[in-house]
Amino acid sequence: MTSTIKNSLVTLGSIFFLFLVWKILSLVIGAEIILPAPETTMRDLVNAVRSAAFWQSVEATVYRGLAGFLVSCLAGAVTGFLAGFNSVVFWALQPFMTVIRTTPVMSFILLALIWFRTELVPIFVSFLIAFPIIFDNVVQGIKNVDRQLVEMARLFRVKPWRILFELYIPSILPFLAAGTSSAMGLTWKVIIAAEILSQPTFGIGTQMQNARIYLETARILSWTVVIVFISFVFESILATVERKLKTWGE
């Protein structure tokens, strides 16, 4: 049995155990409004998938998540690159990074509700949460470069663009990949929280808040399954990219 098959079986076993515990707890509690059974939640999910509002909400949430994530990656990579090579830029940005890291997410959401229209709130908040992660990883990637190799390359008059692409970029990319993976996981959590409070016309967070108002616990859990699946898909894609980049970096 290969390690891949073994790992897949272990994962499936863990998922089965999770559903088993869920089922047992639902039977012990005996109240659908508190904890509906797994089959009730799955049935609700199947019914929801058949509606146009379901796909509009999924599309809107995925769009906001990717928009905030991509903007944070671009801004974090550019500023991290500048800060990694210039200590003045690095120390000039530290107060801003400290403020972003230490400010509660809820504070950002509440401020964004005042500053922006509802559709932009999740994008803005997800950008702020992911941006410092990308920034830090790019800076660490630059600092991880062997300085002796850089000095040797300069001693032998290697062209600057070759030093950049053959020493710095291979060092930065694995750190950048790890940062994007962490940022992506946080992005979906922040997006949903922001949608719950900002209530855009379409969005998974909006649907979850509506379900809470009407005490539709099964609907809340079915939407939770959807967002976990979305997060799993995108993190799997990033994990594949990360493995390839690490191979290049080595």
Automatic annotation (TrEMBL):
<comment type="similarity">
    <text>Belongs to the binding-protein-dependent transport system permease family.</text>
</comment>
<feature type="transmembrane region" description="Helical">
    <location>
        <begin position="12"/>
        <end position="35"/>
    </location>
</feature>
<keyword id="KW-0812">Transmembrane</keyword>
<feature type="transmembrane region" description="Helical">
    <location>
        <begin position="163"/>
        <end position="188"/>
    </location>
</feature>
<dbReference type="InterPro" id="IPR000515">
    <property type="entry name" value="MetI-like"/>
</dbReference>
<feature type="transmembrane region" description="Helical">
    <location>
        <begin position="123"/>
        <end position="142"/>
    </location>
</feature>
<feature type="transmembrane region" description="Helical">
    <location>
        <begin position="220"/>
        <end position="241"/>
    </location>
</feature>
<protein>
    <submittedName>
        <fullName>Binding-protein-dependent transport systems inner membrane component</fullName>
    </submittedName>
</protein>
<feature type="domain" description="ABC transmembrane type-1">
    <location>
        <begin position="58"/>
        <end position="238"/>
    </location>
</feature>
<keyword id="KW-0472">Membrane</keyword>
<keyword id="KW-0813">Transport</keyword>
<feature type="transmembrane region" description="Helical">
    <location>
        <begin position="66"/>
        <end position="92"/>
    </location>
</feature>
<dbReference type="InterPro" id="IPR035906">
    <property type="entry name" value="MetI-like_sf"/>
</dbReference>
<dbReference type="GO" id="GO:0055085">
    <property type="term" value="P:transmembrane transport"/>
</dbReference>
<keyword id="KW-1133">Transmembrane helix</keyword>
<keyword id="KW-1003">Cell membrane</keyword>
<dbReference type="Pfam" id="PF00528">
    <property type="entry name" value="BPD_transp_1"/>
</dbReference>
<dbReference type="GO" id="GO:0005886">
    <property type="term" value="C:plasma membrane"/>
</dbReference>
<feature type="transmembrane region" description="Helical">
    <location>
        <begin position="99"/>
        <end position="117"/>
    </location>
</feature>
